[in-house]
């Protein structure tokens, strides 16, 4: 049984570069979420998909951020023109729509912007 | 907007003892869910326990139980017979029934279980 997989686990980049994170959810889960977690804080909701449709985006998700889930399977989160404030852990989670709030999280992708 | 407050940044408990983690929340909604998630060091977050606001009975999962006080907007987690493997960050979270998987998290309580 494979859980939620995120790649890369760590990414160090220079300010202004673009980065992309990938999330592979649990295969039968139709919902996929992205959260951001900074040091000393709880995760903050960014966006979520039901199948391939992006149903909601947080105001935290500026125009530099884009997320896709092209075939309702894996998802990518791209950050363009990274800023130091983007440094955080980016968490992906998946769930079945019928089970309220039971999210299965990946181990996260840690981004450091120098 | 909903808020979730965890006022205990760190707690410590001895193995086999009982510990209670506090959580308060603020919402104008009447139908919602509350959760406790556990994030062990360098491992993924997992759901510990869930409570539906319309249920008066407190949820229980093995050694984990909650004290849900809807009028006080309080949702504490009790861990009985603490084990070393309970060492983790614990996050309280809230979700409206309408968007039941969009969670609002508190800032977490770091629990250390000692011998």
Proportion of residues in helical segments of chain A: under 10%
Number of strands of chain A: 11
Mean pLDDT of chain B: 94
Proportion of residues in β-strands of chain A: over 45%
Largest sheet of chain A: 7 strands, mixed
The backbone outline of chain B, from C-alpha atoms, is globular
The percentage of residues in β strands of chain B lies in over 45%
Low-pLDDT sequence parts of chain A:
none
Which structural class matches the secondary elements of chain A? Answer: mainly beta
- Tell how many strands the DSSP assignment of chain B holds: 12
Secondary-structure element series of chain A = EEEEEEEEEEE
The description of the largest β-sheet of chain B is: 6 strands, mixed
Describe the structure.
- The complex is a heterodimer of chains A (114) and B (115).
- Chain A is an all-beta fold and 114 residues long.
- Helices cover 0% and strands 49% of the residues of chain A.
- Chain A contains no helices and 11 strands.
- In chain A, strands 2, 4, 5, 6, 9, 10 and 11 form a 7-stranded mixed beta sheet that branches. A 4-stranded antiparallel beta sheet of chain A has the order 1-3-8-7, with no helix packed on it.
- Chain A is globular, with a radius of gyration of 13 Å.
- The mean pLDDT of chain A is 92.
- Chain B is 0% helix and 52% strand.
- Chain B has no helices and 12 strands.
- In chain B, strands 2, 5, 6, 10, 11 and 12 form a 6-stranded mixed beta sheet that branches.
- In chain B, strand 10 (88-96) and strand 11 form a beta hairpin.
- Classes of the chains: A mainly beta (114), B mainly beta (115).
- The A-B interface holds A 3-4, 31, 33, 40-45, 48, 56, 91, 93, 95, 97, 100-108 and B 4, 33, 35, 42-47, 50, 91, 93, 95, 97, 99-108.
